[in-house]
Amino acid sequence: MIVLGSNQYGKAEVRLLRVDRTEPAHALHDLNVTVTLSGAFADTHLTGDNQAVLTTDAQKNTVFAFAAEHGVGQIEDFALRLARHFATSREAVTCARVGVEEYAWEPVGGTGHSFARAGREIRTATVTHDGTRSWTVSGLRDLVLLNTTGSEFWGFARDRYTTLAETADRILATAVNARWRHAQAPDDWAGSYGTARDLLIEAFAQTHSYSLQQTLYAMGKRVLEGLPTVAEIRLSLPNKHHFDVDVSPFGVDSEGEVFYAQDRPYGLIEGTVQRDGTVQRDDTVQHDDTVQHDDTVQRDDMSAPVQVW
Domain 141-297 sits in which CATH superfamily? Predict the structure, then answer.
C-alpha cells in the first residue's frame, strides 16, 4: 500500500524592505521571510483538489500587508503575528511556521536617509504556532570570529591515514551559526539577542582553546549562564582552517605571519548545550512563559510535520 506521508508547503524567501519614516532619521528593516504551512492538504496531493490551498502568492502578499499595516519591530514579534494569522485564519491549516532573517544596515553621511550594509552576522528567528500555542527560536548566522593565538590542537587519535601535525599555537576561526530555545519569552527581544551575541563573542575570545569542541561548549555555557530564560542553545561551527605559508624558498622569514585560508574542505563542529534536566527537543517553548513537560512522544514540533530547528 502506498500512502501520503508528512507534507508541508509555503512561500520561501520573501524579500522585504520596510522603511520607517516616523522620525527624521529613517530606520530600515531588511528581511527575508519564509512561511511554511501544514495541515489538511491531502486532497491536493491525491486528487488535485485545491479548495483548501492558500496560495503561496497570497502568503507573500500577507507578509507585505502585515509589514505595511503593523510595521516590523522585533523579528520575533513580526514572525509571531504572521504565524498566528496563518494558523488561525483557515480551517485547513493546523500549524504555521514563519522564519525570518534580518540584514543589518547602518546610517552614513549624517543625512538620516543614507545607509551602508553592515558587514555583520544575520539575525534569525523562527516562530511556530499550532492554533493555540506558539514557540520561538532566536539565533544568528555567519558571525565570523578569529583568534590569532590562544588555540592549540594536539593529543588527538592517529591512524595510518593521519598526517596532521600537532600544534601548540594556531589561528582559530569560525562562522558561528547559533539557535537558542527560550524557556520563557524575554521582556526585550532585542536586548536578549544582543546579550546572547555578546556572550558568544566573549566566550570565544576569552577561552584558551585546545579544540573547537571545547570552545563550542564554552560559548554555549556562557549564553546559558547569562540568559536564564534560555533552555538550550545549538551551535554549528565550521573550522575555517588557516595554514602557515612557507616563504623560506623566497629568502623571507615570516613564520606565523602569513597564512593560507582554505575554504574547503573544512571541519564542522556541532553540538547542543542545555541545562541539566532539560529534555532536548526539536520544538520551542510557549510564549505564555510556561514550559511544556509532556515529552512522552518524540516530535519535531507539536502535531504538524514542520521542522522548527
Answer: Urate Oxidase; (3.10.270.10)
